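Good morning,

Attaching, inline, the backbone tokens for the sequence recovery test we're adding to the shared suite. The designed sequence is right after.
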């Protein structure tokens, strides 16, 4: 049976959603420190966190290089490898890696689902930016409790267009946005205007194998990559199992920790294809 295809930019205008930030209350974390959790509550993100060592990330980069080559040959592009854990066992393994899941569980609680995996690969000189936006704005999920783990496949810095955060902007709830214009060359399709009034810009510079973790309401984006170096990251999305998904998105969710008492999430098996 062919798996369901999911729009990267779905129409959520008819969805009733509760989009507001709820501070994390965890006084005895397992992986993160209390200071990191405090920073997440106040600033909306944690970075950097080392997950994979040099040998591991070198192997993962080689894997992605091959996956990208196959994707381009099939007519895709460097941004189109989405919901990859549903097709590729290696990405499923990353999504469920205990080192990542333990850190995420410190923020979300014991019962956690991993529901998203999307490679954002900015090729050298590709000219595409990502406008200031909030992740929760795009998704048919409620309430807004998703955290994104952004894994650096390549080193990411200001030269090759690392991600940028507006620290503290997650506290303002769901913000008004407009459709992006063609002149913006936006990878996505939403732009929050005058966004810097909501927070201080911070460059999310990461070495390959490190991750950042951010709230689904934190304003973030990135400039165009004008360098001669690629900048690839794998975004991994996690939520507590009590979050509800519309448009069939619950079928994407892999139970990575604890229980899903209502069996809302599909919990698909690991794909055999690497």
């Amino acid at each position: 049976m062919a798996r369901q295809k999911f729009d990267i930019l779905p129409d959520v205008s008819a969805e009733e959603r509760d989009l507001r930030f709820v501070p994390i209350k965890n006084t005895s974390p397992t992986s993160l420190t209390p200071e990191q959790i405090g920073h997440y509550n106040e600033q909306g993100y944690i970075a950097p966190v080392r997950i994979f060592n040099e040998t591991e990330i070198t192997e993962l980069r080689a894997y992605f290089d091959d996956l990208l080559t196959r994707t381009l040959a099939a007519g895709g592009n460097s941004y189109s490898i989405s919901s990859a854990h549903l097709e590729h066992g290696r990405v499923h393994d990353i999504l469920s890696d205990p080192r990542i899941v333990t850190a995420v569980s410190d923020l979300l609680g014991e019962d956690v689902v991993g529901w998203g995996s999307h490679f954002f690969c900015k090729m050298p000189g590709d000219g595409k930016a990502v406008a200031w936006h909030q992740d929760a704005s795009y998704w048919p999920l409620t309430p807004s409790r998703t955290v994104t783990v952004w894994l650096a496949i390549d080193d990411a810095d200001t030269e090759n267009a690392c991600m940028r955060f507006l620290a503290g902007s997650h506290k303002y709830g769901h913000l008004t946005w407009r459709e992006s214009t063609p002149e913006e060359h936006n990878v996505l399709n939403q732009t929050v205007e005058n966004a810097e009034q909501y927070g201080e810009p911070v460059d999310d510079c990461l070495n390959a194998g490190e991750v950042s973790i951010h709230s689904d309401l934190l304003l973030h984006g990135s400039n165009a990559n004008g360098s001669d170096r690629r900048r690839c990251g794998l975004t991994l999305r996690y939520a507590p199992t009590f979050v509800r998904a519309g448009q069939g998105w619950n079928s994407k969710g892999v139970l990575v920790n604890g229980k899903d008492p209502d069996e809302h999430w599909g919990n698909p098996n690991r794909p055999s294809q690497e």
